[in-house]
Amino acid sequence: MLKDAYRYKVWADERTLAALADFEGKAPASPAFAFMRQQLNHMVIVEELFRARLLGEQAPHPATNTEVVPDLYVLTKRLTACNAWATDYLTHIPPTEFCSTVSFVFSDGQHGTLTREEILFHLINHATYHRGAIGHALDLGGGKRPADTYTVFIHGAEPQRRQ
C-alpha cells in the first residue's frame, strides 16, 4: 500500500506543479503565487531533510523554509528529484527495513525517532496537506485547482474499477 500511496503522491504533485506553471503564466507577481511557491518550497525542504535522515546524512537545510524562495522551475526540479529518489528507495528497500528506526534532530532542535515506513508515510501526508493549501490559494487567486484525490488517481490508473 505504501508504494501505491507514493505513486499517488507523485501523480498529485505533478498535477499541482502543472497547475502552478499555468497560474505563473497568468499572475506571476501575485501574492497568491508567492504563497504557493512558499508552500512548495517548504514541502521540498522537508522532503530533502527526511531523505538525508533516511540516508544517515547531514541535514541539507538549517530550517524548514528559506527567506528567499526559489523560482518555480527550481522547485519543480527539486520536487521531481525527491519523488524519483523516494520511488527508487521504495523499490529497493528490503521489506524488513521498513520497521527499522531512524533517530534524528528536527530543525527546531527537538529529537525525533520514526521508522522508515513512518517517514515515508509522513512525506505522503505532509505533501497532501501542502497541496491542499496550494489548491486553496489557486481557488482564491482565480487559478484552476487540479483534481488530486486518491479516488481520482486510482480510477484513472485502473479504469476497470469504474465498472
Automatic annotation (TrEMBL):
InterPro entries reported for this sequence: DinB, DinB/YfiT-like
UniProt keyword Ligase, yes or no: no
Presence of the UniProt keyword Transmembrane helix in the record: no
Species this protein is from: Pseudomonas farsensis
Taxon lineage: Bacteria, Pseudomonadati, Pseudomonadota, Gammaproteobacteria, Pseudomonadales
Family indicated by similarity: Belongs to the DinB family.
Superkingdom assignment: Bacteria
Family matches, as Pfam families: DinB
Gene3D superfamilies named among the record's database cross-references: dinb family like domain
Keywords: Metal-binding
Name of the molecule in the record: DinB family protein
